[in-house]
Amino acid sequence: MRNILLLCCVLSLIGCQHFRQAKQQSQLLDSVAEINGRVNYQSNSDGGELVVAVLSRNDNTFSIENQKLLDSNGQFKFYLKPGTYYVAVYQDSNHNLTYDDNETGVAYVDSVGMLQAITLNDKAKYKAKPIHFAKPVKKGYAVQYSDNYNINNIGKLANLEHAMFDAHNVDMGFWRPLDFLAQVESGLFMLSPYNAKKEPLILVHGMMGNPREFSDLVAALEDSDYQVWVLYYPSGVGLHLVKDYLLESIEVMQKRYGFDAVSVLAHSMGGLITRGYALSHQGHARNYKINHFITVNSPLLGMQSARKGVESSPLVINSWRDVATNSDYVNQLHTQTLQPEINYALVFSYQDGASDDGVVALSSQIPPNIQREANKMMGFNASHAGVLKEAKFINFIMSTLSNSASAN
What is the pTM of this model? Predict the structure, then answer.
């Protein structure tokens, strides 16, 4: 994460056209609305997963706007641009994430059984009545599909040298996140084929970061008891969107592979995302546990520079609002504590003669209430991003992970 005030100062250097595009995309993200609800169902004996889909309609043809596997608690949530939508649930018997002619589904309907249109205005939150998947019906309408779903990248194999991780894409993800989502692959990627004998370790980058920053740690983990997955996301979007995507993605992977534990390591702003994920995870019954949770140089109390950027910048990036000191997102992270079963390691950095690591203040990296949750805490004399390449840091992480790797 770079100093946000510096980013404000260089806005004039990105050009008028790019400035307009960035501002338009920020405003569109500000208007994002939400549909959430629950599906009541009995376990399916044939192994077919239930998929919840949000559709738009043109006469008798529907187009999928987004879809996701139903989580283990039967709940779903979609973030959408303002518009009119329909919701349906189908049983994906052949696991291809497509509603085929021989599969059954049920639509969200009104009191007389007609398809219920849901119209969302800016920032609207629509809570659907429970959907009962008791008497599904055969496909009755044409449904068009698109490949532009992040669900398709959940568990996809990737290499850290892939061009999608190049610096210009990282910059796009910060300044123009909607362009990033349309043009660049994002998702939860595996760096090697799934190995049932190894516990997943999920690495999460921060603002204007990318998975390549973990290259040295990934190399050290090659012969360990862990298989590395990386979350790649546009760092200009609101953190609640990324947090929910991470929660949903790990649910998908758990259903796919059946693992009983994951570990998570996050750098900088990624620590805010993953703390939100961990608190959401422990709020419901899950089919897996969080083994190790490690935050590195994370602004756990937010950043004053982000607060000043929100208050004074001509262009406000959406993630700034959540990173800002005393933001709703940051404050929510301190209303709960981590469960003691989670092995939490709190890592911080400092530089000689300074009260920060060059970016994040020590007071935000190690607030007292978070220190009390930590099983281990370690500091390094290193810069904000430079710590990820320090041999002492990598040795500490390897030692921490080796203490209680889960046996599969």
Answer: 0.86
